Amino acid sequence: MSNHALLSSLLHYKAWANQELFTELQRLDPQHHQVELHAALRILNHIYVVERIFVANLQGVRHDYNATNTPETPTLEALHAAVQATDRWYLDYAAGLSAEQLAERLSFRFVDGDAGCMSREEMLAHIVTHGGYHRGAVGRIMAQLQVAPPRDIYTRFLHQDQPQRREAS
What does the pLDDT look like over 2-16, one tens digit per residue? Predict the structure, then answer.
């Protein structure tokens, strides 16, 4: 599997895992689990903001963020829609990159002012791993509420997306 194909698969997995998590979060009672839902939204909004910052970094344009979260907390519905749009952006963006573009290193500034330099490929890998780490924290919040978090592991995604993988070879 090429790096490009692997990144594409991982970005599809990320979009699928986000959808799984938002679907499960919609089942929480917003009144009864207000504190926990707010904590989950803060974490998910952080993921979203970081992904938007890297959209700007990948395009070589400035962004308007001065932190990796926003002062306000979006609603579950608004954040879900924004995350879906960002997931589509990453899928479309990565699909149009050549191997040379993936390897190209881009300089940027982190929100704390520190300089950064990463290849497009590294930035895309960061987006996948960063989101996975924080989705796990939201899953932990759900587990503490006795709500089963989604089993959003890569192997499950691959076998659900490509059921022929379950066939014996």
Answer: 888 899 999 999 999
Second CATH level (architecture) for the domain 3-166: Up-down Bundle (1.20)
Task: Say which amino acid occupies 75.
Answer: T
pLDDT cut 90: percent of the chain above it: 79
By the 10 Å C-beta count (0-12 exposed, 13-18 middle, 19+ buried), 86 is classed as buried
Helices H / strands E in the chain, number of each: 6, 2
Beta bridge partners of 119: 105
Task: Answer yes or no: are the C-beta atoms of 13 and 135 closer than 8 Å.
Answer: no
Handedness of CA 18, 21, 24, 25 (dihedral sign): negative
As a whole number of angstroms, the distance between CA 60 and CA 13 comes to 26
Per-residue pLDDT band for 132 (boundaries 50, 70, 90) equals very high
In 3D, which of 15, 9, 18, 7 has the Cα closest to residue 136? 18
- What does the alpha-carbon distance between residue 19 and residue 80 come to, in Å, rounded to a whole number? 8
CB neighbours of 11 closer than 8 A, spacing ≥ 6? 87, 90, 91, 94, 124, 127, 128
Q: What is the dihedral of CA 153, 158, 160, 161, to 10 degrees?
A: 130
